[in-house]
Design goal:
- With 408 residues, this protein is mainly alpha-helical.
- The chain has 13 helices and 9 strands.
- A hairpin with a 4-residue loop joins strand 8 and strand 9.
């Protein structure tokens, strides 16, 4: 009986969300559409230039390999296998660009590389199946639904669900020593796949895992100012917190920029999918922390860590800006008008900055990537000040959301 009641509640929330989101979107987009920093012509030119870049990238990609980054000084493309956590962003970006340009070559390339990717639906060794499979097959299913896509996504959700532990009440991120249970803020981005799985299967267990994980994250990942730790290490036996730290940030108590962006995006999705006000409050708290931080530069492209010791000479992380702008362009539809305008304006500034020569590569350069000045793992010294596939993906996603909200 409890399962049936939960399924009914989920169905009601989905219907309510559709009505509220549509109403909010129309109201806020109307109030935000008077003047834009990016014209329709500029947006169209960026789509066209980006499509050409990705066709250039595709032309240099070895068979069965996925782009990871490009090293300009060495003129070298770095690739990965399908099991790398970023493997879904390349086909996802191709599909976004296909939607915006109707360039069939982009769609064909996405279909080709997704054949290589689809075996990861059975991968139970990673928490990143949302990134890998929903950004790719999820987008493909929206464009042209197929039973095969549905099966692949359901299997992917089942694989992700195997990493949930009811004692810890969270999905394990990285496999580690037996006495550790590591959960990272990034994992919030993979919950959207679970909500999708409950909608299409009626199996409420995916929904329960997603909300339980999010509640545990609110409880343990965040400081009073809404900044987040990167990594929480739980006791796998008791579920108690053993350690709060970072892996990719400057220090355990610093605010790693991309981590804040993951949290912002993830809790915005949580509110969309549940309409629970605590998730909206969490998303707003994270947004306000970022946008009002004294170390956020005027162009709104954050330093790789809000507490990096060499600010203002610290590296920027354009990938964090892309994720943040995409999140804000959804979040602005769920908040009152004054806050909505603030979030929209901040996202618009980020997009304008990312579209400038400072952050966007000139056509025909840099191996075909779109955005420069991304920072992957600064403490480890990998992917420093280089293009990143997820920077490209969320830039194009944000551009598409901006275009939709800006329609008169």
């Amino acid at each position: 009986m409890r399962t049936y009641l939960l399924i009914a509640r989920v169905s009601l929330l989905i219907a309510l969300h559709s009505l509220l989101a549509c109403s909010s979107s129309k109201q806020n987009s109307k109030s935000l559409s008077s003047k834009h920093l990016l014209s329709k012509e500029t947006i169209f030119q960026m789509y066209t230039a980006s499509a050409n870049q990705y066709k250039l990238l595709a032309s240099s990609l070895p068979p069965n390999r996925f782009p990871r980054t490009f090293h300009p000084n060495q003129n070298r493309l770095e690739t990965s296998g399908s099991d790398w956590w970023c493997s879904g962003f390349y086909p996802g970006t191709l599909l976004y660009l296909y939607q915006s340009t109707a360039d069939q070559k982009l769609y064909e390339e996405a279909m080709r590389i997704m054949e290589v990717l689809k075996k990861e639906q059975y991968n139970t060794t990673t928490h990143d199946l949302g990134f890998m499979m929903y950004c790719s097959f999820g987008n493909a299913n929206q464009i042209a639904p197929k039973p095969e896509y549905k099966d692949i996504l359901i299997n992917s959700a089942k694989s992700l669900a195997t990493r949930f532990d009811p004692k810890v009440r969270a999905i394990r991120s990285w496999d580690s020593d037996k006495e550790d249970y590591l959960v990272i803020i990034d994992n919030m981005m993979n919950l959207e796949l679970l909500f999708w799985a409950t909608r299409v299967t009626g199996d409420s267990s995916f929904y329960e895992i997603a909300t339980t994980h999010a509640n545990t994250t609110i409880q343990n990942h965040f400081r009073p100012d809404y900044s987040s730790y990167h990594v929480i290490n739980y006791d796998p036996t008791t579920g108690a917190v053993q350690q709060k730290r970072t892996a990719q940030g400057y220090s355990n108590e610093s605010a790693w920029a991309r981590g804040q962006a993951w949290g912002l995006y993830g809790f915005t999705v949580m509110y969309r999918e549940t309409k629970d006000p605590k998730y909206l409050a969490q998303a707003k708290g994270i947004a306000d922390f970022m946008l009002h931080h004294p170390n956020l530069p005027q162009d709104k492209i954050p330093y790789w860590d809000f507490n990096a010791p060499n600010i203002p000479n610290a590296l920027r992380d354009a990938s964090a800006a892309g994720i943040t702008s995409a999140a804000l362009l959804e979040l602005c539809q769920y908040v009152p008008a004054k806050t909505s305008k603030e979030y929209f304006a901040a996202a618009e500034t980020m997009l304008q900055s990312l579209s400038s020569d400072t952050y966007r590569y000139a056509p025909g350069t840099n191996g075909g990537f779109l955005i420069k000045h991304g920072v992957g793992h600064f403490p480890q010294g990998t992917e420093i000040d280089v293009p990143l596939t997820y920077a490209d993906y969320y830039f194009i996603e944000a551009l598409k959301r901006y275009q939709e909200l800006s329609k008169n």
